[in-house]
Structure formats: structure tokens, C-alpha cells
Amino acid sequence: MVIRDELYEIGIAQRRKMFGNAGSDAIVDHTTGLNDKIEDFVTRECFGDIWQRPGLSIKDRSKVTFAMLVATGKPHELRVHARGAIANGVTPVELREIVLQALLYCGIPAAVEGIRGLNDVFRDLGIPPILDGEAETTRRVKASGKSEKKSDDKKSSKKK
Questions:
Q1: What are the boundaries of each domain within the chain?
Q2: Taking 50 as the threshold, does the pLDDT of residue 74 lie above it?
Q3: Could you tell me the pTM of the whole model?
Q4: Closest C-alpha among 88, 89, 118 to residue 102
Q5: H and E: helices and strands count for the chain
Q6: What is the DSSP letter of 21?
């Protein structure tokens, strides 16, 4: 049984904001004897209490959560929380940068799984894969055979 108290009301409202009805009421309203204790904990303690603390903004909590899910290799929850992070104002570029940071500290497999999850979520949400133009610039530079690095330009101008 899910306890319906103030923490529940706050938690279910947060879940609705992040995940819509499918990730909030639809789950809680259909709990079973197997998962009711988990859903009670997630709704009341996780989203009703910890996510509401004043030390971090909701957006920052989404970033931290997403990073931890990449680090621990939780592909399903990573996808769920990527959607929630976008709903909380985290940009696609910020999510990509979190995965790149994870590459340094968690390794290639974690980062690759993070990118796979983002690809799925961005495709489902209609977010185009062109985020900030970096990949397109790299392709263009490679195709032209030129370098756009400022340090290369400085070295060549000093030699003249």
C-alpha cells in the first residue's frame, strides 16, 4: 500500500512534472504486493523529500542523477532520467557533456551506454542530433583538409 500523505502529494507532483502520468500516477495506481513498497519509497522519500531539499536545484539534481546513472551503468533508468532532466530544464548539450565527463572518470563502456540512451531519448522526443555544431565543423574541416585551431594559426603567423 502506498501511503498518501504530504510527502506523497509532493512526490507525485514532482514525478508528474518530470515523467508525466505514465511515470507517476499510472505506476503508483497500479502497484502490486511485489512493488508497492518500492513505489511508496520512490514517491515519498525520493521525490517527496530528497528531491525537494534546498541544497540543490531540481535541475542540478537531474544532472547529478543522470551522471550517477551513467556511472553505474543503469541503462533503463538513464533513459527515464534523461527525459526527466529535459523536463527539468537540462539541455541536450548539458546531457551530452555529462556523458563526456563520465568518459574520463567512468570509462568508455559507461559513456557509450550514456550516448545510446541519449540517442534513444532525443529521437523519441524529436530532438535533432545536431546540438552545437561541433561534429559538423569537424567533418567540414576534415573534408577541406584545413585546421581551424587557433594555436595552429598563431604558430604559422609567428613564422612569417
A1: 1-53
A2: yes
A3: 0.82
A4: 118
A5: 9, 0
A6: G
